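Technical appendix A lists one of the benchmark inputs used to test multi-chain prediction within the project. The record comprises four sequence entries:
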Amino acid sequence: MKDVALRAGVALKTVSRVVNSEPGVTPETASRVLGAIEELGFRRNESARLLRTGRTATVGFIADNWGDRESAALGRGVEEVAREHGFLLFAGSTDTDPVREEQLTLSLCARRVDGLVIVPTPGDHDYLLSEIEAGIAAVFALRPPYHLARADAALVDEHGAARTAVAHLIAQGHERIGYLGGDQASYRTRQLLDGYREAMGTAGLTVDEAWTSLTPQRLLNSTVTAVLCGSREHTALALRTVVEAGMSRRVAVVGFGAFELAEYLAPGLTVISYDPAEVGRAAGELLFGRLGGYRGPGRRVYVPATLVTRGSGEVPPAVP
Amino acid sequence: MKDVALRAGVALKTVSRVVNSEPGVTPETASRVLGAIEELGFRRNESARLLRTGRTATVGFIADNWGDRESAALGRGVEEVAREHGFLLFAGSTDTDPVREEQLTLSLCARRVDGLVIVPTPGDHDYLLSEIEAGIAAVFALRPPYHLARADAALVDEHGAARTAVAHLIAQGHERIGYLGGDQASYRTRQLLDGYREAMGTAGLTVDEAWTSLTPQRLLNSTVTAVLCGSREHTALALRTVVEAGMSRRVAVVGFGAFELAEYLAPGLTVISYDPAEVGRAAGELLFGRLGGYRGPGRRVYVPATLVTRGSGEVPPAVP
DNA sequence: CTGAAAGCGCTTACAG
DNA sequence: CTGAAAGCGCTTACAG
């Protein structure tokens, strides 16, 4: 910029004015400056500008692994909103490691990102407090953080979807319904089980607690006629277990997540599914709400999850 | 930092030394500084440091849409390499729009990223020349740019995979083999068709040019007994067409891409598949090679693609 | 071992 | 309409 000023025979400030298209420059001066910029191949150093301005026009996106389908689509949703605001996006993966999450977040904060969308790890998030105090906006996605109850979050209505799914199974005549879904303490499992219990209760069915923490092995030895799954991986597990044991007519599987080519699956597959990009966009909107000056209490946005049936027909009805 | 210096009663430089754990500070002074840092909740502004240092320790990843499976996994591979080097990653999507690619790239360059991994759009990339001259490293992934032949690229051996796939079909007795894959000018289609032609030629089979640009409609009216697909979407299309027309016994489908739950697909599915994360890591290595001082000519790295059979058996043999 | 000055590339606040 | 100075938060190159 100094070189440009020198070459155009003007002061630094004039170059700055031209570059920012501020008013108050004669067309002649402007074109002289523009010429110099062209000749020198000058391009403003955005970082320097932002250092002075105090903002960086960047946000960070932190997920377990943004290489997986769910996180990637979610991140893309965040990017869209960021882009509308002229912001650039940092992306980082924690591999579900709280230590790594903290490192990543802190180094992003050290770069002075304006905001952060975080799919939180199980760890606590107190380290964020001082950053938030320092002015950085943080929004959680997919699950709320353990403490930090005041933070904004964009979530999925897994509770409602599980309730619907289980009610649907019950309507098909199922009474012994199980849940296969990994870590019982995880947010998604708790949400799904809440919905499950609610539907069972409404139908007047009692829940055998053994049903709520199935494994493939236990599923084989269980009397359940239907199983609700808590993740893509558990859906695949359940399917494999049921098919390999030749039980696909006897045990109905309700999966979690969208699967391509699901219409050609042999047993047919009904799933609970939601649009991760929508969660990302919702998180982005919450974030830019904060960046736009919102100072109120934490908000929660729920994205709907729906029951989708694909492939060769319905969930099989209960066989008496 | 000024506040910290004031509070600790030392000069700015001393604080800088402590923060960077440079030698030459007495333990007492150091602990005084550390104390002040603690009390003030000081955290170094990385951007300011990097402005002075001249590097930003960031790289950018630009893809059609990093929310899709292929790009996301690829980007995650780049992130891994970046992380090993202590770099942060920007991610942006072009939606296959050359204009958007240029905008994104240029704004990343204005932030002075040290390097860029780009899944290029069909546009030309001359706008990158001046940036590369200015010292930014650029590596292409998945497909090479149209011009800019000198650039590094991490690619997939689609050519070899198609050759293998078609040879395999031929070994199963197929002689009339088609290709369904969208834009004929795209890099992937050209690679796949090259491999296809090579295998057909080696087997002494002649290619009816109509076979090389199938659509679902043309596939129905064609005499081909097998079809090679050029993308995930075209795989789904081919499958749908074949299944709905009741031709799944007569027409063998070789898909492209990895599909979850493929083992439970009704007709069974053989696909050409590769590991996108590996392409990302390869691109990352090329990039950091440049950042590490490599100044030689452009390099190409090929990641293998393999033929995988899932589900209820093999590609169906040709029915006489 | 410690510090005062200059500068990275830009903008802000003020004068002319 | 244009410019000279100060400063964003840090580091570099030099003295003491």
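The first strand of chain B starts at residue 58 and ends at 63. Chain B touches chain A through 57 residues (CB under 8 Å). Comparable benchmark entries are summarised in Table A2.
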